[in-house]
Specification:
homodimer; 2 domains; 7-stranded mixed sheet; 16 strands; NAD(P)-bd_dom_sf (chains A, B); oxidoreductase (chains A, B); Enoyl reductase (ER) domain-containing protein (chains A, B)
Chain lengths: ~325, ~325
């Protein structure tokens, strides 16, 4: 049989296991021009929360009682397509199913000899590209500048901070527990890391870690953490807005201090993006990331959950900050 | 005698005449290397409100019991400097005094034969440059796009809208009375203008005026008007933040809906600026504005108050929206 995870109920506020439902279907038989894929690794990402709402956004919402989709690495187990053969591994936006057919559209072959398979969902996949392109195309960090990243121990944050260091910045990370603080300053060589949950005065902590002010703020979280960073931005600061995980589960429109006065006073630029905005730069960005990874100048960190049934829980754990680096579910071999 | 207007008390919230004090001094005698200047036209501008606070910003605050400064056109009445002679007219950041000396630093000679003197404070001065450079460098409007401008009947707004039309945009202005609505659509050829004070549902009015969404929002006001425009921005919208007059007199940090989610969903760019950020482009921008003005493709509109003693009241009138176009005080001949 073939397990499939559906969107069962739309969440109000924080999602829970009740929003998902696992059903069993028959394993499909690929037709002419189709592949049969077996899921190996599933990416769970904060942005999926937005697709669970019935709201217009940059991608359509998930439909009720239809499978959730996300980035998946799968193995080709049967092929009626010239370009793919049994035993190939592919990456693409696929359904949360153990087995599924595909026409091959939107799939990219990935090579398990060049890098471990899970890294194609992380540092060599969407999160690595998001970190690299958001930072370089919008943040435009210059040597000697100060870069602050929130959600610093997450999939994107860990890569942003490391690239900031490679580009000669002073890097300060904001994260939610002391173990992650240690990870950021040791494994990832951040200059400072701040635990926002235990720091009594976040503004003061940022001021103390960034005596020269903040030139680039790579924002993964939004909300009060970002307010505290904005209090210390320099003239001409650049603020890539990559995510707003602290706001995704709000049921009312979240309110906060208006930003126009500070952007005006500091001639600062705040720009939202999704990685598809930079699609033309994926090949060169992937080459750069792979080169740094092979040279050992970039560390990839993953939190791997095990088992198809645990995909929803792994997704929910993102909102509790339980992951270090990229959260991935290992489903098969 | 020589009247001078000082900052007497810092305003809390909305400023009033009590914040200013007029004193009389002797007319100074220029020394070697100095000019004696007689004030002719005084520019009053919303941004001066920020300098009345004792707060760090992009320019230092005015000092208590010292003269206010703003853009001024003055006549050289005595000169001990080679580059200036009696009868020349100059433009510069000068004190609210009938007469003052200057070393010539920061002064620009202006030619009353090329354009009327007051226009060097408006369409050929700081406000024209602000409109042109904010729009073209940040807004980057493309032919056929929709441009919305708030504070549309003000000094900057009237120029932004006209340039938008010259560049082939559909232009919608937001303003505060019906007379201004008419001015914008007749004299300045805006496609639509909205009176935000009488429109029962500003969001709906913007939606109706901008059926293809908003590509560029030139923001002079901030606050709830901007919230309504932001509800209709398109993917990749550009939002130059030029002013926030609706927030300048707030005594508490103004609160509003957080912007990160909408900037993220729309891959939109919000950027604050002051005109000094683009100083290297002043010569080419001034040439373009003067050319359009001479060709009759750009209309300059001014509200002129009369008399040195009326400078503070003219400034206060800005916050009541009493001006159409640039607010200027005529002091001498």
């Amino acid at each position: 049989m073939n397990k499939t995870i559906l969107l069962h109920k739309r969440p109000q506020g924080k999602p829970s296991l009740e929003n998902f439902k696992t059903v069993s279907e028959e394993v499909p038989t690929p037709k002419e021009g189709e592949l049969l894929l077996k899921t190996v690794y599933v990416s769970v990402d904060p942005y999926l929360r937005g697709r669970m709402n019935d709201a217009k956004s940059y991608i359509p919402p998930f439909e009720l009682n239809k499978p959730i989709q996300s980035g998946i690495i799968a193995e080709v187990v049967d092929s009626h397509l010239q370009d793919f053969k049994k035993g190939d591994f592919v990456s693409g936006m696929l359904a949360w199913k153990e087995f599924q057919t595909s026409t091959g559209k939107g799939l990219t072959k990935v090579d398990p000899k060049l890098a471990k398979l899970s890294s194609y969902l992380g540092i060599l996949g969407m999160t690595g590209l998001t970190a690299y392109l958001g930072l370089t195309e919008i943040g435009k960090p210059k040597e000697g500048e100060t870069l602050v990243v929130s959600g610093a121990a997450g999939a994107v944050g860990t890569v942003v901070g490391q690239i900031g260091k490679l580009l000669g910045c002073k890097v300060v990370g904001i994260t939610g527990n002391d173990e992650k603080v240690k990870l950021l300053t040791s494994t990832f060589h951040f200059d400072h890391a701040i635990n926002y949950k235990t720091t009594p005065d976040l503004k003061a902590a940022i001021k103390s870690s960034c005596p020269d002010g903040v030139d680039v703020y790579f924002d993964n979280v939004g909300g009060e953490i970002s307010d505290a960073v904005l209090a210390h931005i320099n003239k001409f600061a650049r603020l890539p807005v990559c995510g707003a995980i602290s706001l995704y589960n709000e049921t009312e429109v979240p309110m906060g201090p208006r930003l126009q006065p500070i952007l005006l006073t500091k001639s600062a630029t705040m720009r939202g993006f999704i990685i598809g905005d930079f699609a033309s730069k994926f090949p060169s960005a992937t080459r750069q990331l792979a080169a740094w990874l092979n040279e050992g100048r970039l560390q990839s960190r993953e939190t791997i959950a095990e088992g198809f049934d645990n995909i929803p829980q792994a997704f929910l754990d993102l909102f509790e900050g339980k992951n270090k680096g990229k959260m991935i579910v290992k489903v098969g071999e």
